Amino acid sequence: MNDASAGLSETLEALRAAAEETRLRMLALLAEGELSVSDLTDILGQSQPRISRHLKLLAEAGLVERHREGAWAFFRLGERAASAQILRAILSALDGSDHRLAGDRVRLAEVRASRSVAARAFFERLAPNWDRLRSLHAAEDEVEAAILDAVGPKPVGSLLDLGTGTGRMLQLLGPRARRAVGLDSSHAMLSVARANLEKAGLRVELRQGDVYAPPFARGTFHLIVVHQVLHYLDDPARALREAAKLLAPGGRILVVDFAPHGLEFLREAQAHRRLGFSREQVATWLAEADLDCTLTREIAPPKAGDDQLTVSLWLGEDARVITDWPLSASNREVA
């Protein structure tokens, strides 16, 4: 039996878990993206304990997965190969025009709209500082064009956006990825990102966590983006070393940050710990993480002056290669 096949017991457990109206409606809703217990309570009009019991049964059967985000818990469809196979069969059998499922989708849209309003209100409180910062460096579309050029046209595979903030890098690069994940330490910023990504129609994973201890297995990602994050950190080199551990062989880390500058007001106004980084500094950190720095680029500010910011890009590549020709003792040459 291959890894993508479910055994008889596993299949029966999954079918028993799904064979109940509320749980089946939950699976249909989670096919639209991850949701919290509170979201499902609002949509389905049932009590929190009842919703939690249903989710526990689905999780035990491997049909949904749970992750923490501060005091909140979010759920998404299971991703194990066997579970995904069963889920596809179950969901494809549903009639999307059923009045109960259609009503659930209407209420899902209302929940997302409410979440978007709350996220927009939070972001509007930050906007004046963000707008001032943006006025000091090259236009966002110029920076994003440079990011796309650095990444290149090939499909990304699995993407991790460290310190995802508003989720903009996931919007930019997520459509190229088979799997896209955003990590941020702030629940409030993840709420903003979730609303933005839902509005853009993108299905990505969002996780709350620490860039110094990212909650992912080694060798998981093909591209990791660290966009305007390092200047907030006490130990940027450590963050890059931890990120490099998550790369699959041949994977890449793209760092986007500021060149050295003297704008001290950013320390107090926006909590910047570092006032930019030199080309050599970040390239050295990438080398210490066993990555080859294959690209550096600087994007000039809109006008000359000491009060302007240069945006810098660095691309670090893992030098390991994937091969299907293992070097065994029998085919090694003896010196």
What does this structure look like?
With 335 residues, the chain is an alpha/beta fold. Helices cover 44% and strands 20% of the residues. The protein has helices at 8-18, 21-30, 37-44, 48-60, 81-92, 99-134, 140-151, 168-173, 187-199, 236-245, 265-270, 279-288; strands at 35-36, 64-69, 72-77, 157-162, 177-184, 205-208, 221-227, 247-258, 291-299, 311-318. The strands form two sheets. A seven-stranded mixed beta sheet has the order 6-5-4-7-8-10-9, with helices on both faces. Strand 2 (64-69) and strand 3 form a beta hairpin. Helix 6 (99-134) packs across helix 9 and helix 10 (236-245) packs across helix 12. It is globular. Mean pLDDT is 86; it is low at 327-335.
